[in-house]
Amino acid sequence: MADQLAIGSRRGLRPALPLLLPAYLWLTVAIFLPLSAMVFFSFMTDLPLAGKEWSFTLGNYAAFFSQSLYSTLLFASLRLGLEVTLWCVVIGYPAAYVLAKVLKGRSREAIFLLVILPFWSNGLVRIFSWAMVLREGGILDTALNAVLPFKINIDLMYSYPAVIIGLVHSYVPYMVLTCYLTLQAIDDSLIEAGRSLGASRRQVLWRVIIPLSMPGLIAGAALIFVPVVGSFMEPRILGGRTGTFYGTVIEDQFVAVFNWPLGAALSFILLAVVLIILALAAPVLRRAG
Amino acid sequence: MAGVQVANVSRSFGAHKALDDVSIDFADGGFYALLGPSGSGKTTLLRQIAGFDFPDSGRIAIGGESVERVPVEKRRIGMVFQNYALFPNMSVADNIAFGLSVRGEPKATIATEVQRALDLVQLGKLGGRKPHQLSGGQRQRVALARAIVTKPRVLLLDEPLGALDKALRVDMQIELKRIQREIGITTIFVTHDQEEALTMSDRIGILRDGRLVQEGPPEEIYDRPQSEFAATFLGDANIFRGDATGSGIKLPDGTTIAASTGASVPAGAKASCAVRPERIRIATGAAKPDPANANMLTGQVSKRIFAGNNSTYFVDRDGQALKVIVQNTGAERLAEGQPVVLSWSPDSTVLIAAA
After folding, report:
1. What is the ipTM of this complex?
2. Test mutation, A197, A206, A208, chain B, max B CBs within 10 A
3. Which CATH architecture has domain B236-353?
4. N or C: which terminus of chain B carries fewer CB neighbours within 10 A?
5. pLDDT in tens, B156-184
């Protein structure tokens, strides 16, 4: 496969140019320009608006290192990203397996639709509907108390678990989709071959299916981990006072405090940290895949 | 190592009877081909023996032990799949080691056994390669090594040579046969290729629509087919249909055909006769009675296909196209449209009772 790719690129980039150009022009305009503006802002003392005085500074970046609050919140966000990713694996992988290997035809389409549904609903609506479910006297509380003979208080609202629940709900479809695609590509005869050689279903899972679906797990984890570390909507609405994370602090700088330069600097630090983590993880993951 | 007994096995998928009361005895150490067109149930039968699927009724025994409800991983079988099914994430050596490793064999034992298996299939130095770096024939050998390294009781092969080109297929047929003899394992081999079945196996079972049509050594099935289907599916045959006379059949136009092999059919019953194209002599000129080739018909050459070492003539006789194969001996070739006399021996004529 690597050989074929090499041959393809040797044939030259020129014929492919008309195909690449629209996408790259768009990316340049839509991402590169605003992003470079943000890089520019992050080195400024204030926004160059309404005739305010401004000059270049490294102070915004220095703020991250001088105040332990920011690094503490960054660690909390990284931990949040890790936990949400793990829950998405635990919940999403088995679902993807059943979709790819057990269900066929109509029932597969129906279950698939249920998995994709969160994608089609508005993010805010999704989060506020969780608020209805999780608060004291909410749907979950009422339903459990109606069923159980003893009185319990379910008030998950404004707590760390609520943030996790909301984020897992938003991001689990990514894991299901990426894992579904790799699992679908695993030939059933490989599973049969494993069993014909005396391996139990569990051994086939660990030695054949999981290693072969590693690319999907990795892709899913990357798609989930990165945005969750920077997330602010779910932590703010479902987490309340406990929902202060790195992402919400960045949001504050842009929306509430109007300190865009600090917000931009914090964003680029996050980007750098995430890139370093992915770079460090790459060799390990490549070996596993 | 062990024989396999399949007794009265039936399996339906919905309304479709994939296997209908099939019984076959596979003797220990034999090489069996299950032959049939697609949809005949041959692969379903193999999957019942392997344990990927369980029969609705009937009994399957390996080495005398009933296994029809035993899952595949506990049956101690070796299986080679049509697409080889090598684990793409593992090296050749790890593929072969898989069965020993899941069983928890010590590492040293695994290493020596894997090397021995690699040597047996003549891939001694390729243990470190990944499956995608191998040719089709090499993958086939790895799949075979992986299936036999665990010392299974039976080796099952599902159209293993189907994906190889012709020359390689012939090489692999010889190779497979050599390895099978060397380790003496009972081998059951599913194929739709009649030539492969004829050249490789000790016995052939012909399946059609989920039923076993005939079972026996290749020579016996070829020389004495018990049904029109067996006669035409394994090799070519000219079929004549008529009424049994006690010593052959009488065609609707009154011509009699004498048959001295095959079933005994009471006179008056419907029956047919099968004659292999290479058993028929073709001659020009007047018909001369010949006691050795007592069956005689006249016709007209409608088509000749030259194939180098032989020619196939299609001879039209009252609307029926008869096929005759003549070895290329340098004798004069017949032209299309030429009137000819066909003759053959009653010994080459197989009487078949009407189904």
Report:
1. 0.84
2. A197
3. Beta Barrel (2.40)
4. C
5. 999 888 778 888 888 888 888 998 999 99
